Amino acid sequence: MVTVKVFERYPFYRPYLRSTYKILFNEDFIEVLRDDSSIRSLIRKYKDEGINLFFTLYDKWFLYASFDQPDFKPRPVDRGFWPGEEGYDKVIYRIFKACEESGLSYGCEAFRTMDLSVPFAKKNPSESGGFWSFGESMINVDGSFEIECPNPGRMESNPGECDLRFERVKYIFAFKEESVKSDDFYRWKITETKNITGEVSLKEVEVDNERKSVKIKGSWKRGNPEWRVYAVIELKAQEFDYASDVGLLWAKKLIDKYDQMGIRLKAFYEDEPHIWWDWGNWKKYGEGLNLPDMIYMTDALAESFRKTYD
User: Fold this and answer.
1) To which H or E segment does residue 249 belong?
2) Residues 6+ apart with CB under 8 A from 153
3) How confident is the model at residue 5 (pLDDT cuts 50, 70, 90)?
4) Phi and psi based region of residue 286 (left: phi greater than 0; alpha: psi -120 to 50; beta: remaining)
């Protein structure tokens, strides 16, 4: 088993007065699949100590030397076992049975949103959610332009990793701007903003993995330096489309699967209940990558907004 230091200030919610937990990493899953005697012994020990709930979860942050490293950068260790996948489900079943035999209740993180979205997207890539990434640039005298939009390639959080891949150039807008009180602030003139997606010629769209960006080279016949261009690109993620019921139906089927397997979870774990793109991710990818220029968006969500506010 992998030994980790548990940080006292980590916000674990204990629904039972006598409960304990274990952080599981890839090595632990592999060991339980090979031989579950060690985890069974640990559960019996907890029973003898008066514990009535045993809880497990995968949490990548505990792979780091300290909880809040000032020089934190993503660690290239990918999660190997996700809810709904054969290996994960077998391990959860074996731990549940060991708890059941010792008279302990069992809980896990199997239905944390971000833990579910990755295996869902693996099996349903066309139904997955994603992000819109933005970039802007000047237009040259000959109407040509080059735009760069951020694309980190992947995101990381407590549950592990979520891949991002470039899907397509969604929109190209042309606009004119004017300064507001000082040269530090500008605003678009709504009356001089155009959707020119159908008018531009895209000569090259390059995914630059080293710079973590998507470069767009194109031209607009009516373009000149009075205008600027603004690009919106679509990035597919291992994420739910929260404006669609497909992911929810998939999650319900997973609950039914666990029920059919005989797994009875007495507790669920949800830490930082947000989507994969959280408020601090842009701090983790190095200087110069303007990641706040990304938002979660899907066609279904955009249509929902249009119907509500148009």
Assistant:
1) helix 246-261
2) 163, 164, 165, 209, 212
3) very low
4) left
Top pLDDT among 270 and 66 is at 270
- Tens digits of residue pLDDT in 88-97: 999 999 999 9
Residue type at position 53: L
Distance between CA 291 and CA 283 in Å, rounded? 9
DSSP state for residue 173 in the 8-state scheme: E
Strand locations in 181-290 (E): 182-195, 200-208, 213-220, 228-237, 267-268
Tokens of 24: 């599981």
Mean residue pLDDT across the chain: 85
Q: How far apart are CA 203 and CA 198, in angstroms?
A: 14
129 contacts 224 by C-beta, under 8 angstroms: no
Structure tokens at 96: 């549940």
